[in-house]
Amino acid sequence: MNRLCKQSLCAAAALVMMVGAAHGERIKDLASIAGVRNNQLIGYGLVVGLDQSGDQTSQVPFTTQSLKSLLKQFGVNLPSRTNLQTKNVAAVIVHATLPPFVRSGQTIDVTVSSLGNAKSLRGGSLLLTPLKGVDGRVYAVAQGDLIVSGFGAEADGSSITVNVPSAGRIPNGAIVERGVPSPFAYSDRLVFQLHDMDFTTAKRMTDTINAIAGPNQARAIDGSTVEVITPVDPASRVEFVSVLENLTIEPGESPAKVIINARTGTVVIGQHVRVMPAAVSHGNLTVTITSDPIVSQPLPFSDGDTVVVPRSDIEISEEGNRMFLFEPGVTLDEIVRAVNEVGAAPGDLVAIMEALKEAGALRARLVVM
To answer: Which of 173, 202, 331, 351 could form a disulfide with 144 if both were Cys (CB 3.0 to 4.6 A apart)?
Structure first.
């Protein structure tokens, strides 16, 4: 890509962004580049320096085994039957996220969580812990003092705990030893993956990129994948992608859906939901039972006993909500207004929507969570 092409590309991109910024969304907000992703790391280690709040080694044998192995590396050989009763050591799991393009020598944050029965990790220090990826290779090494937001206290059998004292973080607590290769550095093509599959969005993204970079530079492979030809030179590729990810497009509108959370009674109705002609009647039947016992006193000199006679009043009431009618092509606003006029609660609205779907009058996908 020569200098003139670069200038033309940047100028055209700036024009498109000025026109589409008012109502479009950036490509970087709608899609991600395949292969440019995070990687998860995990490791096992020991936290020391705790104030008698570590693992009870008699109940957590792996903490004792780990401590013996650690001491053995420093020439301290303990008899095999030695029962260590340390309370200032805790076995922990350490995990971290390795960002893309990270290089050896950079630092990343780590999270440390108790694996045994330690009460608190406050004041502890994590010893040298290798962090491995799914391939079993070491990508970072963690060590440092923990920051724990939670705390606990107990006295005379009473205790109180605030937040979670058995987990903490070490900002910049791991040094990266090896980076993860990315296809971005050597491939002449990039693949944009849409966060939400939509053929219309993929087509519009392809047309926008081709209008800026030239014909046939981008092609939609499917409803969630767009492939783009990029410059071979890495520096030019970075500049090219910087322009592409800031292009704005109008994403395709999502299908008509009604989302129902049956546990909380939450109902979310999409913009394109329509209702065919239907009549709905909603009412609640309420049964109220009250107990009003009566004390029965015997007549004087009758040798009778005083007894309590149970008496219950049962009342049945039914709300007289009137029926309402949905005309053809009813919109979201009209649905909400009609249901509110009937006085239906969120839980009742769930039943109404399910009944409309069962009757074939709801033109939307019903998703029950």
So the answer is: 173
Q: Are residues 228 and 266 both part of a single domain?
A: no
Residues 46, 171 share a domain:
yes
Helix, strand, or coil (residue 118): coil
Per the CB < 8 A criterion, the answer to whether 36 and 100 are in contact is yes
Residue labelled with tokens 């009003």:
292
For 339-347, the CB contacts below 8 A with 24+ separation are 342/280, 342/282, 343/319, 344/282, 345/265, 346/264, 346/265, 346/266, 346/267, 347/265
Report pTM: 0.69
Q: How many residues does this entry show for the chain? A: 369
DSSP for residue 183: G
CB 179 within 8 A of CB 101: yes
Q: Which two tokens stand for residue 348?
A: 């009742």
Nearest to 89 by CA among 42, 58, 143, 52: 52
Tokens of 245: 């990810």
- Band (329; pLDDT cuts 50, 70, 90): low
pLDDT confidence of residue 340: 67
- Dist. CA 325–CA 203, nearest whole Å: 40
